[in-house]
Design brief:
Oligomer: single chain
Low-confidence stretches: 1-8
Shape: globular
Order of helices and strands: HEHEHEHEHEHEHEHEHH
Helix content: 40-55%
């Protein structure tokens, strides 16, 4: 989905030309995996998470639960946080700064309606990792960076059943961002081991994945992503 040019920014056609010349800065770390939970983290999910984290490198895990009170979300999140801590994986809470504070999470991921990074920083402290959903908007991403975000997330790049989406950025937005800004970018939306390569080549710092892992064998899926990211 194209967007209006804001502040002299390139349009999507120009971005594609920009991306054709893109070469990743070798000073940036290689692309890494950012694992997002399914909505249901009850039952044997803690065991599944352990297996996933044992199967290959994962940089961060995001707890994404909806439609429950904070007490129940905290009860479900506490054992998952411990699993991540034992694996040296950053534990991020989706949407809810208060829950992140209550759990002592490593950070929070904010949608456009969930508050701003400055508010999250004041609540969670200087070491918290704060991410912001920026859809397909370079303007929103630059605003997030100016407000102190530690990473920006673009997507959905591919069709996804994980959440309703209305924005479809071109992969070249990742090239532009990587060239212009040091803050990492996260690519999200329908990413699988089969379709992720163009996003890695375009400059994504992280691949955010959920259904591709939890809809089947999590060990095999993490292994497939690991093999892809190693090449």
């Amino acid at each position: 989905m194209s967007e209006p040019d804001q502040g002299g920014l390139l349009d999507d056609n120009a971005l594609e030309g920009f991306a054709a010349q893109f070469v990743r800065d070798l000073r940036r770390p290689p692309c890494q995996l950012y694992l997002i939970s399914p909505l249901d983290v009850t039952g044997d999910f803690p065991d599944r998470l352990k297996r996933a984290l044992d199967a290959g490198p994962v940089a961060a895990f995001q707890l994404r639960v909806k439609g429950m009170d904070q007490h129940e979300a905290a009860r479900l999140g506490e054992p998952l946080l411990r699993i991540c801590a034992d694996a040296d994986v950053a534990f991020i809470v989706n949407d809810d700064m208060g829950l992140a504070k209550r759990l002592g999470a490593d950070g929070v991921h904010l949608g456009q309606g969930d508050g701003d990074p400055r508010e999250a920083r004041a609540l969670l402290g200087p070491t918290a990792q704060i991410g912001v959903t920026c859809h397909a908007s370079r303007h929103l991403a630059m605003e997030a960076g100016e407000d102190g975000a530690d990473y920006v997330a673009f997507g959905a790049f591919y069709p996804t059943n994980t959440k309703e989406t209305h924005h479809r950025p071109v992969p070249a937005i990742l090239s532009w961002w990587s060239t212009m800004f040091e803050i990492p970018s996260v690519a999200i939306g329908g990413i699988t081991p089969q379709n992720a390569a163009p996003l890695i080549a375009a400059g994504a710092d992280f691949l955010a994945v959920s259904n591709a892992v939890w809809a089947g064998d999590e060990t095999a899926a993490i292994g497939a992503f690991t093999d892809l990211l190693a090449n």
